[in-house]
Specification:
Blueprint lengths: L1 H7 L6 E3 L7 H9 L5 E4 L2 E2 L9 H9 L4 H14 L7 E9 L19 H16 L4 E6 L6 E5 L5 E5 L1 H11 L4 E3 L7 E2 L11 E2 L1 E7 L3 E8 L6 E7 L2 E3 L2 E8 L19 E7 L2 E4 L3 E8 L8 H5 L1 E4 L6 E6 L6 E8 L4 E6 L4 E5 L6 E9 L3 E8 L1
Parallel strand pairs: 1-2, 2-4, 3-4, 4-5
Antiparallel strand pairs: 6-7, 8-11, 9-10, 11-12, 12-18, 13-14, 13-17, 15-16, 15-18, 19-20, 20-23, 21-22, 21-24, 24-25
Length: about 375
């Protein structure tokens, strides 16, 4: 079949699918197909059923827990592929899905509340973050669109309603706000495990982090797994603290991790977008997905020496910002003002350490000011009110 299909259309890609729960399946599969496949695919699943003796919080912590199963199997398969008769074969996720049933078949239904909740949305976000993080060995991943993604129903006004569950929102947020390259991210935070379900959830960090970037933006995606507390974090970027910056924030959160959308409340758990000026610490809401989009080049990475000698006031301001740089050995040569999207708004060559900037003509919003001195280029954000 492989040879016949390739003869008709050489661009077609053939996927071999095996039982990834059985360690013996891969060599058995490769013994039969040899080099007659372009991809090795499989479909992961996770869920906590009623039969599991656990509280709702324990079930939640298990569902969003990162047991590293996906990453481990990707690495294991990659090693096996390299040693096989088809070392050029790539990997893919042909289907990933969630199962939170209480009976034999109700996991299939869009009336299954747990499978339609924010809890499962956060699990989907974590899965995508794992897939993006391993994109060097994984070409694509396909979500089972029919399970826990789109709901339909009749509301109390007898109107037919089509709406999205949090899982679809989470996947769309990550897909639409991500860079082309993956950066290394190491979250420093507390950990947890669920002792009576240890096989599901060994030691897990409260924060799952994925950082990506492209030519003009840095994207920091964070899932806070904690069921009841917002967690604060500083950002260290290339060994420098990221501070005094403005970010476009995309957030998926709700009061309870089992909240879900319905025909009467189709937007109860839906993404929020806003601009935020961040001094140095950001608090990620409890059980949430947050993406910070930060313009590269105007990220507010401040040299500590420059910061300590710069007076920049008032901020926020409606008319004038005063600048006083108390460094007799370094001169500010130029400043440039950018909007949140990186567009140059104004610039001025000054050769002075004491001056004012007229912002009266700017529209209300968040901006960056970039200072060029004899010793370097530094950025700072401000708000026009």
């Amino acid at each position: 079949y492989y040879d016949r299909m390739k003869a008709v259309d050489p661009t077609i890609r053939i996927i071999a699918n095996g039982n990834h729960y059985d360690s013996k399946s891969f060599p058995s599969l490769m013994k039969i197909i040899k080099n007659k496949s372009d991809y090795l695919g499989y479909h992961p699943q996770k869920g906590i059923n009623k039969s599991k003796k656990a509280s709702d919080i324990e079930k939640y912590l298990c569902m969003v827990g990162n047991d590293n199963f996906e990453s481990n199997i990707l690495f294991a398969y990659q090693d096996s592929i390299k040693q096989s008769m088809n070392p050029q074969m790539r990997q893919c996720i042909t289907e990933w899905w969630s199962s939170n049933g209480v009976g034999d078949n109700d996991w299939l239904l869009d009336t299954n509340i747990r499978n339609s909740s924010l809890e499962t949305g956060l699990w989907n976000a974590i899965q995508m973050m794992i897939y993006y993080r391993n994109s060097n060995i994984l070409d694509f991943a396909t979500r089972t669109i029919g399970l826990g993604m789109i709901g339909r129903g009749v509301n109390s006004k007898n109107q037919k309603i089509l709406y999205y569950f949090p899982s679809l929102h989470a996947i769309a947020m990550l897909r639409n706000h991500i860079g082309q390259k993956v950066a290394t991210s190491i979250p420093e935070c507390g950990t947890y495990n669920v002792d009576n379900l240890e096989a599901w959830t060994p030691l897990t960090k409260w924060l799952e982090v994925l950082s990506t970037y492209d030519n003009d933006s840095l994207y920091i995606a964070v899932v806070n797994r904690h069921p009841s507390e917002g967690l604060s974090n500083e950002f260290i970027f290339n060994n420098s603290k990221l501070k005094n910056f403005t970010a476009k924030v995309y957030e998926l959160s709700s009061e309870h991790y089992l909240d879900y959308n319905s025909a009467d409340y189709p937007d109860k758990v839906s993404p929020k977008e806003y601009l935020r000026n961040i001094d140095s610490i950001y608090i990620f809401p409890k059980h949430s997905l947050t993406i910070l989009a930060i313009p590269i080049g105007y990220t507010g990475i401040i040299n500590n020496e420059f910061e300590s000698k710069l007076n920049f006031y008032p901020n926020p301001s409606s008319n004038i910002i005063n600048v006083s740089y108390l460094n007799s050995e370094d001169i500010i040569l130029e400043y440039k003002v950018f909007d949140i999207y990186g567009n140059l708004i104004m610039s001025n060559k000054i050769n002075d350490n004491l001056f004012s900037i007229d912002i009266s003509n700017l529209a209300t919003g968040c901006y960056w000011i970039q200072f060029r001195t004899e010793k370097g280029v530094y950025s700072k954000s401000f708000i026009k009110i």
